Amino acid sequence: RAKEKERKKERDRKRRRNVARRASSARKEGKELEDRPGREERRGRKKRDKEGKGKGGEDERQEEVKNDTVAKTLKNFSNENTRKLEQKEIEVVGEEDGDTEEKRKNGRSEKGGKREDNGRGETVEKKQKKKRVETSAEHESSEEEEDEEEKVGEEKPEVLSPEELEKLKEEVDERKKLISTLRGKPWPMRKKLLTLRESHEFVEKYEGALGKGKSRKLYAYKVMMLKKWMKFQRDFENFKTACVPWEMKIKEIESHFGSSVASYFIFLRWMYGINMILFGLTFGLVMVPEALMGRPYGSMPRKTVPRADEANAMDFAVLWDFGGYAQYSVLFYGYYNSQRAIGWLKFRMPLSYFLVGVGTVAYSYMVVIRTMARNANEDGGGDNNSFNFSWKMFTSWDYLIGNPETADNKFASITTSFKEAILEEQESRKDDNIHLTRFLRVLANFLVLCCLAGSGYLIYFVVRRSQKFALEGLESHSWWERNEVNMVMSLLGMFCPMLFDVISALENYHPRIALQWQLGRIFALFLGNLYTFIIALMDEINLKREEEEVLKLNMTIWEASLYNGTLGVNSTAPPITVHPADIPRGPCWETMVGQEFVRLIVSDTMTTYITLLIGDFLRAVLVRFLNYCWCWDLEAGFPSYSEFDVSGNVLGLIFNQGMIWMGAFYAPCLPALNVLRLHVSMYLQCWAVMCCNVPQERVFKASGSNNFYMAMLLVILFLSTLPAIYTIVTIPPSFDCGPFSGKSRMFDVIQETLESDFPAWFGKVFSYASNPGLVLPFLLLMVLAIYYLQSTSKSYKQANLELKKKLQTQNEENKKKTKMAALKAAMDLEEAQKAWSEAPRQQRNNNASQQSYTGEKNTVTGHLVSSFVFVWYLKI
Amino acid sequence: MGTTASQLRKDLLSEYQELTFLTKREIILAHKRFSELLSKEDRNVPTPRVPMEKVLSLPELKSNPFRKRISHVFSTSDMKDGSLTFEDFLDLLSAFSDSATLEIKSHYAFRIFDFDDDGTLDGGDLEKLVNCLTGETDDTRLTTEEMRQLISNILEESDIDKDGTVNLSEFQHVISRSPDFVSSFKIVL
Prior knowledge:
The structure holds two protein chains of two kinds.
Chain A: H1 2-50, H2 68-91, H3 100-115, H4 121-136, H5 143-155, H6 162-181, H7 189-210, H8 213-243, H9 247-257, H10 259-293, H11 316-320, H12 324-327, H13 349-379, H14 388-395, H15 404-426, H16 434-472, H17 479-482, H18 484-507, H19 511-567, H20 589-626, E1 642-643, H21 646-663, H22 670-692, E2 693-694, H23 703-730, H24 748-757, H25 760-769, H26 772-835, H27 840-875
Parallel strand pairs in A: 1-2
Chain B: H1 10-19, H2 24-37, H3 52-56, H4 59-62, H5 67-74, H6 86-95, H7 102-113, H8 123-134, H9 144-158, H10 168-176, H11 181-184
Region (Disordered) (chain A): 1-166, 834-855
InterPro entries (chain A): TMC, TMC_dom
Keywords (chain A): Coiled coil, Membrane, Transmembrane, Transmembrane helix
C-alpha cells in the first residue's frame, strides 16, 4: 500500500512536470512542426513506391547528411515496421506529423485513447499525444510510465481542476496560434485543411468551457466578436489590394519583362500617389477657397486681363502658353488676393498659401526619407561579398519571367555573370594596355565635360535671347523663337544621353559600372541644365524688379494726374471709378516664374510622348512591316526594336518631379498638371512597352537600384527646394499681385498671424523661442544626437562582426561534435544490428537517440542563425 | 469544389483564404485558370488532377527552367508524375505570391533546387542547378573546369558546417540575407 502511495505521488509529480514541459514544448512545437511535415509527406509518398524494393535507405529525408549512412541502416529496420503501421496512419491522417517511430511507441496508448471516449473528446486526446510525441524523444526512458499517466489523466471526466483548466486554456490558445500561423507552414493543402478544421472545432468546443456562468457568456461573445473582427480584417485586406491602381497592368508587365522594368512602373505609381497628395493639398486648401470665396474675376487689377491683351486673351496659342485668361486665374500666384481672411469662413488665405507651400516640401521630404529607410531595412545593408556566388546561384533567376525571349536573355546574362565572377575570383584582371585605357577614359570624361559645358552655355544663351525677344514683344517673332528655351532643353535632354552612350563605349568599363557612369552623367546634365535655367530666371527676376520700381513711380504720377484732372472741375465729385483692366500694373515676377515652369513641364511632357510615339511605336511598325521587303533582317539586324530604358525613364521622372517641387509655390496648378501627366504616362508607357519594346539584353535586378533612385530623388528634392526657398526668403514680393503683396517678405505672414490671431502671450513665447540664444543650443543638441546615434550604430556593427566570428567558431566546434556523435552512433548501430533479431526495443532506443541528437543539432544551428539575424536587425 | 467546375464553395473559399497568402480575387482567378486546364471528362471527378505537361504549358511557367521541379515539389500525387490538384495548385501560387514569407519561400526554393530529393544540396544538385540557370544551348553552358570552380566556391561560402553539402538551415541563412530573393521568387497569374 505504501508502495502504491508512493507511486501515486510520483505520478502526480510527473504529471505536473508534464504540464510544465508541455508549456515549453508548445513554443518549440511551432518550430519543429515546420521541419517535419516536408520529411513526413515525402516519406509517405516514397514509402509506397519503394515498398517492393525492400531497400528504402535513401528515402529518409534528414537534415543532417553527416549521419546519412547511419540513418540509412536504421531506416532499413524501421521501414518494415512503418509499413505495418501504415493503416493506422491513414486513420489519423490529421495527426500524421509524428515520426513513424514515435508513432509506434504511442501505438499502445492510441488504442487506449480510442476506448476511453469520455466527455473530453478525442481531439484533446490526440492533441496531448501529439505533444507527448514531441517530448518523447528526449524523455524516452520514462516513456512507459508517462503513457500510463496520460491515461489516468484522461479518464478523469468533466471535473476540471484549475490546473487542467489552465492546461486547456493553453491548448486553446495554442490552437489559435496554430490557426493564425498555418498559412506559413510548408504543408500540402489537404493537411492544412484538416488541421484547420480540427483546430476550429476544438477551439469552438472548448472555448466555452473555459469560463463559468456569466463569464462564459461574455467569453463566448468575445470570441464571436473576435471572429467577426477577423473576417472584417480579411475583407478589408481584400478591399485594400483591390484599391491599388494598375496592379494587374504592372503584374502583366512584370511577367513579360521581369522585375526591373516593372520596378519603373511601381516607381511611377508611387510618384503618382505622392503627387495626388500634393495636388489634394494645393487644390483643397488654396485653389478652391480662392475660387469660391475670394473676390470674383474682374473685381481688381490683379484679377483682370489688362486692356492691351484683352483682344487675344482667349486665343488658343496664348492659352497654350499659359497667358491671357490662364495667367489671370487661380492657376498662378498673381491672381491671389492679399486680403487676410476671405469668405464667411474667415479663411486665412495668405497664411494657407504659405503653409501649403511649406507643407508640400515637408511632406515630400518625409515620404522620401521614410521610403529610403524602409528600403535600407529590407536591403539589410552591407556585407555584400560574403555570399556572392551563392546569391548568384540561388537567387538570380527571376521567376516572374514568362516570355521566352526574356528567358533567353536571362540565361545569357546569368552565364556571363558566372563566368565573370569565376574570372574575377581566379585573378584580378590584368590589363595589358593600361595606359591606353587610362587615356581613353580621361578622353571620354573630357568629352563629356565639354558636352555638359556646351549644353549649359547653350541654355544660358537661349534664355538670354528669349529675354531680349520678350522685351521687344513676343508677337513679332516666330513660334520657334517663342518656344526656344523649352525646346532646346528638351532636345538636349533627348540627344545628350545618346552621345554619352557613344562616348562611354570608349571607356571599356564593366557594364554595371558603365551604367552608373552613364546615370551620373545624365544626372549632371539635367542638373546643369536646370540650374542654368534657374540662374537665367534669376536674371530675369531682377530685370522685372527694376521694371517694377519704375512702374511704381509712374503709378503715383498716373494717380496724381487722375485726381488732378478731376479736382479742377468739382472738388466734391464722387471718386472716379477706373475699370480694373485699365489700371497700370507691375510685371509680377512670381507669375512669370510659375509660367516658365509650367511651360517647361508641358513641353517636356510633349517631347516625352512624341519620342515614345516616334522612337518606339513608329520604329516598331516600320521594322515589322518593312521587314517583308528589305534586303537584310530588320528585326534582328540594325534598327531592330527598341528596348525599354529603365534608368533613363526613371531619371526623367525624377527631374520632372524636381521641377514640380521648384515651381509649385508660384504655380499652384503644377501638381495637378503632373498628376495628369503621370496618369497619361502610365497608360501610354504600359501600352508602348507591351506592344513595341523588346526585353532588355542585360536584365538588371530591380532591388539594388531602388535606393539609388530614391537617393537621387532626395538630392533633387534638396536642390530644387534650395532656389525656391532662396527666392521666398530674400526677394520681396511684388507690390500688386499675389497673396503676400504689401509685405516686405513672404514669411511675414506668419508674424502677422501670430500678432493678430493668437493671444499676446503666445507671440511672446514664440519670439523667445525663436531667438538665437535658444535656437543655437537646440541645433547643437541635434548635432550631438546625430553624433551619438552614429557612434552607437558603429558599435552595433562591431558587435555584429564579433558575433559572426563567434558563429564561425561555434560551427567548427559543432562540426567536431558531430563527428564524435556520428562515431558513437555508428557504434550503437553495430550493437543494434547484433541485437536486432532478439530485441527490437533496443533498436527503437537507438533510433530515438538518433532523432534527439539530430533535433538538437538542428536547433543549435537554427538558434545561432536566428540570433545572428536578430542582432543584424538590432543594428539597423 | 468538384461539383461545379466554375464555382468555388463559399466556406472552402474562406478556408483557402485563411490557409494561403492569396486574396479572394486571386483564388477565384486561380480556380478559373485551373478549370481551363482540365479536360472535359476530368471535371466530373471529385478531385481532378491536371497532368504535368498541361501545368507546364501555362505561360507563367513555360519559360521557367525549374518548371518540372516546381511541378514535382508541389504535387501530392501518389504516382510521382507531377500532376497537380487544385489544392496543390493553390499551394504553388501561395508560396510564390507577393505576401508569402521569406521562410516559406526559401523552404520551397530549397526543395525545388534539391533535384534528387535527399534533403541536402550536394554537388550533383548544384551542377544540375547551374545547368538549369545557364540554359540548354552549348554556347551558354559552362565548361567542366568552370563548373568545378563555381561549385567549390559556392560550397566554401554557404556550407557552414563543412560537410560538403548545403542543408536547409544553411540555405535559409544564405537566402535570408539576399536582397532580391523575395522580389524575384514570385509567380503571378
